[in-house]
């Protein structure tokens, strides 16, 4: 009877990972991790606008309403519409940020990598500057409290020391993970936002006309009316301070989950707007106050508060400002992690401090940011100098994000009718913000530009260097080399290097090998072993995966192994390989590797291991352009700084071989040598006495001329002491200095 034919199975639809779910605990974490930067903006946004417009006496009702309108609609359009409603829809497996966005659209155009690199570099630069600016501003704000001012006075060195100490503690806490930090920061930031709303409501009653600022026409009129706005378009550079944390909000999506941001942003926005309206009402009510007009660097955020609670406000704002840097730090971890996946940055060790894969900690990034922040504080000393550079980099990132989102809407979602207006509208707004921020360049903005440029260079070098390497990468079928590998493993002419020789590879295929590995085994000092392993490590989205897959090519000496480890699993591959080999022996796929000698009574059937790490080396004969050669050299320098796989995979105490192989490339054309008979130069040898090597007068320079006397003396000593009769005679080497005769001396020539 014929077997029943099953109908073709339907291809299972890939279920998208839901990410971090909505929960009360994660809402608290979100408030502590995501909104620190944007949440502290009321402390300085209106203060900067007042200062840029000529002081308190110039802040008429129309001016205040116009400025408030710009702030409210900037928050609404940039943060709410662009990032919360549009950008957060463009997630890559629940990860956000400009690199996650680029990974979605990279197939739509090769040029898209440029805006992604520019935006990512600028955001990382801002992540370095933000902690320094916010913490310094907060600590300087403590001077407004009389008893604290009595302690620190105007001594800026004390402020700098306190700021550095706080930054050290902040970056040290990162290793605990954003979940733990969020639980610590969440209650503080919740209290902070409630305080912002309460302080605003206390002052809105001074002039209810401030609600007219909800009309966007007020903002447009203020922006283009020179009688109201003395700063012109440049005022946008100060208005932009209210939304500097929007990009970090998008980058931190993977840390806290999209639903938790959707749930918390309305609450945060309402608190911010209430505070801005309260400040505006206070400014209108006190425009004619002569005493306040005389206050240097007037800050309405603190001045609108009753004297009794001002000390508490300063203390709370200090904690909030410290927390503000957290959004950029955690966002930087996400950005670098995405950059590594895209081959824009070198592989670095990534830790997962919690049960959620989105919450990561990268020690190298944390340490670099920590050192850079301290350098910024030491360089600028005061927050007034730092603020000149603040926000410039973020305007660049926002412009680049707009470009990528436009491509995402038009090419991925096929909504060109929405993409074009989106690009025109947000591109125009952000270009105006960028243009107004350019005025900060010569007042400190150049620091952000320099940092961004250096980060961009790292990305460019790594990406271009990888592209050069890949043009020369060849994957060869393993089965074509089985005979040679079998013969080598049994060839007694070569010493046995190890029972198990392991090569680490990034190649996840199961039937091919990188040419470099085969070159290392067969051509560069042939490596004899009883068994060869080619190991690839894959990190899964589950926290505690422990799996492996083996292809043995129908042999008992060659294995391609893929270790599948969860992101919370310690990647000490030597211990896992021992289990793999033991399993192969148990299943009779590998002969027992019994120890002849051992300190143990029960000798293991698993032999010894050696790990071979392949490193490419640029050969002087490699035929690539001088520019690409410099790029490769820089890439290998960066790679050496970022650490070794031996450390990432726990091989510090294992037997490791570092094998350097040439970067396979087309060789430069070499001139063919022509051999001349010795008789052709015999007359010259008879006519001219031999000279020491390197003494040709044609090659002499100022350094060789200075050493000529010493060189001649050494040559004379060598001729007198080493050459005698028909054979060279050497004095015996004296090992014990006490046996030397007085006046005798063992020279370098004697030892040789």
Structural account:
- The chain is an alpha/beta fold.
- The chain contains 31 helices and 10 strands.
- Strands 5-6-4-2-7-8 form a 6-stranded mixed β-sheet, sandwiched between helices.
- Strand 9 (723-724) and strand 10 form a beta hairpin.
- The longest helix is centred in the middle third of the chain and has 35 residues, at 307-341.
- Residues 1-16, 688-708 and 718-752 have low confidence and may be disordered.
What's the short story on this structure?
With 752 residues, the chain is of the alpha/beta class. The strands form three sheets. The protein has a six-stranded mixed β-sheet with strand order 5-6-4-2-7-8, sandwiched between helices. It has a two-stranded antiparallel sheet with strand order 1-3. A two-stranded antiparallel ribbon has the order 9-10.
Keywords:
single chain, 752 residues, alpha/beta, six-stranded mixed beta sheet, two-stranded antiparallel ribbon, 31 helices, 10 strands, 8% strand, disordered N terminus, disordered C terminus, ion transport, symport
């Amino acid at each position: 009877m014929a077997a029943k034919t099953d109908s073709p199975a339907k291809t299972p639809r890939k279920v998208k990972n839901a990410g971090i779910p909505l929960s009360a605990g994660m809402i608290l974490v979100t408030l502590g991790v995501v909104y620190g930067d944007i949440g502290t903006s009321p402390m300085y946004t209106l203060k900067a606008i007042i200062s840029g417009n000529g002081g308190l006496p110039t802040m008429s009702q129309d001016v205040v309403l116009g400025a408030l309108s710009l702030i409210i609609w900037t928050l609404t359009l940039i943060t709410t519409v662009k990032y919360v409603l549009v950008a957060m829809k463009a997630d890559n497996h629940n990860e956000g940020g400009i690199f996650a966005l680029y990974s979605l659209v990279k197939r739509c155009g090769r040029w898209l990598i440029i805006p992604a690199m520019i935006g990512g570099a600028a955001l990382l630069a801002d992540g370095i500057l933000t902690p320094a600016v916010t913490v310094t501003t907060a600590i300087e704000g403590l001077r407004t409290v009389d008893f604290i001012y009595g302690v620190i006075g105007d001594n800026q060195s004390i402020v700098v020391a306190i700021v550095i100490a706080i930054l050290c503690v902040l970056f040290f806490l990162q290793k605990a993970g954003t979940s733990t930090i969020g639980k610590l920061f969440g209650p503080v930031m919740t209290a902070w936002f409630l305080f912002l709303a309460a302080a605003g409501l206390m002052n809105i009653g001074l002039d209810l006309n401030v609600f007219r600022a909800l009309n966007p026409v007020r903002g447009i009129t203020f922006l283009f009316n020179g009688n109201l706005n003395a700063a012109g378009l440049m005022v946008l550079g100060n208005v932009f301070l209210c939304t500097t944390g929007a990009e970090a909000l998008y980058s931190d999506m993977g840390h806290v989950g999209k639903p938790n941001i959707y749930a918390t942003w309305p609450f945060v926005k309402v608190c911010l707007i209430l505070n801005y309206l309260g400040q505006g009402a206070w400014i209108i009510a006190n425009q004619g106050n002569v005493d306040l007009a005389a206050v240097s660097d007037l800050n309405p955020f603190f001045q609108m508060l009753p004297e009794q609670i001002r000390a508490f406000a300063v203390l709370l704002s200090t904690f909030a400002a410290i927390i503000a840097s957290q959004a950029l730090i955690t966002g930087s971890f996400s950005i670098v992690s995405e950059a590594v996946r895209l081959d824009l940055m070198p592989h670095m060790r990534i830790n997962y401090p919690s049960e959620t894969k989105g919450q990561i900690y990268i020690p190298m990034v944390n340490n670099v940011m920590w050192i850079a922040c301290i350098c910024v504080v030491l360089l600028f000393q005061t927050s007034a100098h730092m603020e000149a550079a603040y926000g410039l980099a973020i305007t660049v990132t926002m412009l680049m994000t707009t470009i990528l989102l436009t491509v995402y809407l038009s090419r991925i979602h096929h909504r060109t009718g929405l993409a074009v207006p989106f690009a025109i509208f947000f591109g125009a707004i952000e270009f105006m913000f960028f243009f107004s921020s350019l005025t900060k360049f010569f007042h400190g903005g150049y620091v952000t530009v320099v940092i961004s440029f250096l980060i961009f260079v790292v990305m460019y070098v790594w990406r271009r260097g990888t592209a050069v390497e890949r043009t020369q990468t060849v994957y060869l079928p393993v089965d074509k080399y089985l005979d040679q590998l079998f013969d080598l493993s049994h060839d007694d002419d070569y010493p046995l290097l190890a029972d198990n020789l392991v090569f680490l590879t990034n190649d996840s295929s199961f039937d091919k090998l990188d040419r470099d590995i085969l070159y290392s085994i067969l051509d560069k000092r042939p490596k004899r072993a009883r068994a060869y392993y080619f190991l690839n490590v894959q990190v899964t989205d589950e926290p505690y995966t422990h799996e492996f897959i083996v292809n043995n090519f129908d042999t008992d000496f060659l294995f391609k192994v893929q270790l599948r480890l969860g992101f919370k699993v310690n990647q000490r591959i030597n211990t896992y390989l021992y289990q793999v080999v033991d399993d192969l022996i148990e299943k009779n796929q590998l002969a027992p590797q019994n120890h002849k000698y051992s300190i143990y009574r029960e000798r293991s059937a698993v032999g010894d291991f050696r790990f071979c790490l392949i490193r490419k080396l640029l050969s002087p004969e490699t035929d690539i352009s001088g520019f690409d050669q410099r790029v490769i050299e820089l890439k290998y320098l960066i790679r050496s700084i970022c650490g070794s796989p031996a450390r990432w995979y726990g091989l510090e105490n294992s037997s490791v071989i570092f094998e350097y192989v040439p970067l396979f490339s087309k060789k430069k054309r070499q001139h063919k040598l022509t051999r001349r008979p010795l008789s052709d130069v015999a007359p010259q040898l008879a006519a001219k006495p031999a000279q020491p090597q390197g003494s040709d007068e044609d090659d002499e320079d100022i350094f060789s001329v200075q050493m000529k006397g010493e060189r001649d003396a050494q040559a004379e000593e060598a001729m007198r002491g080493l050459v005698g009769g028909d054979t060279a005679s050497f004095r015996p080497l004296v090992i014990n200095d006490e046996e030397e005769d007085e006046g005798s001396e063992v020279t370098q020539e004697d030892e040789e």
